[in-house]
Every structure is written in C-alpha cells, then in structure tokens.
Amino acid sequence: MDINQLSIIIVLFSFSLYLILKVRIYSKKYNLNPLTFTSSKDPIEIMVWCTLILVFLLYIFSILFLNPPMNDFNLNNILVVMSGYVVILIGFLMVIIAHHQMGKLWRVGSTTTTEINLIRDGLFSVSRNPVYTGMTLMALGIIFLYQDILFLSLFFTLFFNFLLIILLEEKFLTKRLGKEYHNYCRQVSRFIGFIPKQRINRKSIE
C-alpha cells in the first residue's frame, strides 16, 4: 500500500465516519430517524437506496484491494492526481455544507411524516441536489486517481442511481409542495447551475 492508496482510504473512511455521525447526531438532536427510506412501502425506492449502498460497498472493496496507478511521478500524472484530490475535496465540502443548510429538513428517502419546506438559499440556490452533486464529484475525483474502467463503470452506476433517487424525490416534492416546487425547478438546475434546467410537468401539479 503506497501513500496515495492510503490517502484515498483515509478520505473514504472519513466520509463514511461523517455519514454515520451525521445520522446519530441528527437522530439524537431531533428524535427522528433520517433514514426514511427504511420505512418506505415503495419497492422501487427501497431498491434504489439498497443499490446505492451496494455501490458504496463496491467502492470500499475496490479501493482496499486495487492499487491506483500513481507510481509514475511524471508531471502530467501528478497534475491528474492532484486534480482528483481537489475534486474529491470540493465534493466532500459540498455534502457537508448542504447537510448543514438543510438542518432538520435533511432526510434519506422520500417517505416522511415530518415537515416539508423548500430550501432556496446557499448551495440550493445553484443546485436542487447539492448533496448528490457533491457525492458525484467525489466519485469523479476517484476516476482521476485510479484511471481504471472499473471506477468509470462505478461512476456511471452511481450517477444513474442518483438520478433515479432524484426523480422519486421530485415526484414526492411535487405532490407535497405543488406550484412552489414547480417554480423552483424552473429557476434552479437539477445538478449544477450551468446545466439546462429540468422542468416538472404542469399536469402533475394541477
């Protein structure tokens, strides 16, 4: 195990620890279970979240047992590796900041009996899904580090899974918030501000 593999393992461990602590702290602070998908009656929602957990475990397994091709320390490779770490750090910070901005409204899943309000400030003013965007950036950064078809495949699997989760959440929020959410979708992009905005079908809110 070289220093680069150790570094990415530390990053992955830190992210995993953060998510575990986030769930525990939230549960104690608000006396609520943020993992609302566990009580869902929608088999599709349960499937996509279980798939996401599986993909995350595959990332852990692959990083632990595959050595990244970082031993060739030419200038180009160093720039690629450093770019990967920068992208991972940006993604990690996006997740932490977005979670903080969500406060009590944070949850993992669409099934909930708690209050639902629309967040428009901070990162949510440029992305409707900054948490998923941040995690996608982290996966992209790992591709820079490993430069392997396996991690490229995991990236697209992760992205597709996030897209399915987002579509489920959009359906849920449209039912709960109606025109307010529809207008928000017209103003803010699904992922990043410069990507064309996704519109909700008007018939679904009338």
Characterize the structure shown.
The protein is an all-alpha fold and 206 residues long. The chain has a single domain (3-205), classed as Four Helix Bundle (Hemerythrin (Met), subunit A), CATH 1.20.120. It is 65% helix and 0% strand. The protein has helices spanning 3-30, 43-65, 75-102, 130-146, 149-177, 179-187. Helix 2 runs antiparallel to helix 5 (149-177). The radius of gyration is 18 Å and the shape is globular. The N and C termini lie far apart (58 Å). Mean pLDDT is 83; it is low at 194-206.
Q: What is the number of domains?
A: 1
Percentage of residues assigned to helices = 55-70%
Number of strands: 0
Structural category is mainly alpha
> Mind describing the biggest β-sheet?
none
Features:
Four Helix Bundle (Hemerythrin (Met), subunit A), 206 residues
What is the fold's blueprint, element by element?
Elements: H1 3-30, H2 43-65, H3 75-102, H4 130-146, H5 149-177, H6 179-187
